[in-house]
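The freezer alarm interrupted the setup, so I double-checked each line after restarting. Inputs confirmed:
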Amino acid sequence: MTIAYGLRDRYCGEVDETCVGMNISVCGWVSRIRDHGEHLVFLDLRDHTGQIQCVVDKNINIRSEYVLKISGFVSYRPEENYNDKIPTGRFELKDCEIEILNTAEALPFSLNSKANIDEALRLKYRFLDIRSERMQYNLRLRHNVIQAIRESMSSLDFLEVDTPLLWMPTPEGAREFLVPSRLQKGHFYSLPQSPQIAKQLLMVGGMDRYFQIAKCLRDEDLRADRQFEFTQLDLEASFVGQDQIIEIVSKVISDLFLKILSVSVGPIESISWIQAMLTYGTDKPDLRIPITITDLTALFTSTKVNALRGSSVQAMLLKNVASLGRAKLDEFVAIAKRLGGKGLLWLRVVNDEQGLNFDSPVSKFLEDDDRQAFLKGLDPNEGDLILVVSDEPLLACQILHAVKTYAISEFLIKEEVSKTDYRFLWVTDFPMFESVDENGNAVAAHHPFTMPNEDDLQLMDSNPLKVRSSAYDLVLNGWELGSGSVRIHKREIQEKVFNALGLTDQEAESKFGFMLNAFRYGAPPHAGFGLGIDRLIAIVANESSIREVIAFPKSQSGIDLMTMSPTMVDDRTVKELGLSVLDKDKSETK
RNA sequence: GGACCUGUAGUGCAGCCUGGAGUGCACGUCGGCCUGUCAAGCCGAAGGUCGCGGGUUCAAAUCCCGUCAGGUCCGCCA
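Predicted 3D structure, all chains:
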């Protein structure tokens, strides 16, 4: 018996020519039984490495998913009975002795079935679901990815430091989970939405380079790519700027893809936020999709068509879909209106006696200049479909992006988007503030510790919405994989940003006083990044939801279907925490 | 807070639009047969609160309303 193998001599999937002729023991679960009568029973034993066929020639009372230790002689199968579908298909265990380590009831769903098992059922019995090949693969992949990241970070002189889970609420940003304090009644810790402030304080503490495979917690609504708790590669480095962080993260990513997938990522393109918005209509474009937005404003300055006389003219060409029915086109228009646009104009490219022409609700208003403008601006072919939104540029482009996303999900070019094509993109120069609220205060686009672009500092008071920040996102195939920024390390600039956000000095002091205080004592210039590991693994695993790469995820309404948490607790427990539950009847019926 | 999709035997589905006896398929389960299978095969059997509640109707899995659960998305996610 060895440390590695315990009760067994080999793992099931490891049986190979090196052990032919040996009497070995394997342990695992019964995957399938093929019973030919008492003289011949085939039994597939499965563990985390694979499966091996065991031949039994006596009466047994074994059922699926029993836990067995099987001892037998490893033999080659008769050559005509090789099974090429599995790695151990040339071997089998003969003259087997079976020890039943545990019995099992029939499972609520089959682990062998190729059918899609209802996800709620899988989550209720997650401990069984994890036995499936899919989950075994995904969780092993997750381990390998995290392991590779730790090695990379370590080799780049980053040091892993734990930061507290029970900490200080940071009221800006995502809604946080609160934890009542028993010892300090009426006081609360919060679970961090990210270790942001802690890692900046580590920089003040002279750690130079920090990273953490960090749990982040956000009490916001769940999605396919969002869970309450998720895992982030959190990193921060001193005396570096945007370029170094981008270089570091790019290296970690490309080393990872080479190691895990043998894929060479190559240099990662970079695009400014405004350019991304105007070209793709989103700040997280999927570069695998070759549909971009063209600004035709300059070509329609003197048009008489009202639908083309908005403050800009943004157009998108969809190849070979002019046959699309009116119902779909009406849905496009509906999407545009739902997003706050005035509408959307479509033009089918046809070929008539005048050459290329347009079939559209505005056909009869189109003058020759308008036709030429579309031909010149978009170079369409017969059978293409042109979609145009004439509105404020950002809104128009966002509408076209939404329509494009819908079109792709419904009918467009799906087969052309390769799942094994990994198109990374850095998006830089995000706006510092995304809007101004009803009180005239700016609303931060990133977090309030983000350094404004130095060239825009003088706009902070006069025109804050024009201020760019030193923030950058890493995008992969339309997923936001992570984001980071250069941080403010000077107290004066930090105060200026808090002011723009509408925080009074007193508020800033009470919420972030410890941080402002730290900045009095020599904070180094620093910058960092947070990379969503669940999303990264989901993409690498070719899964469309991060739930598939998390051992025990929650449903969209935030319930763990296995434990059925969250649960009620008894009054005494609540009272001990210095709390009382309001509207209890209502919460009990839920 | 909102929109849409889904819920039928242990599992995966069909049936629903156009109301007429829980009508059907595959897998699994249970029993029997079977000495080279590998999604073994053959024979047989059991297995149903059609998510739940209400309404319309002579009659509801089917139509209507509500509700619960799951999913996708919008809002939200500094």
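Quick read of the result. The longest strand of chain A covers residues 23-35.
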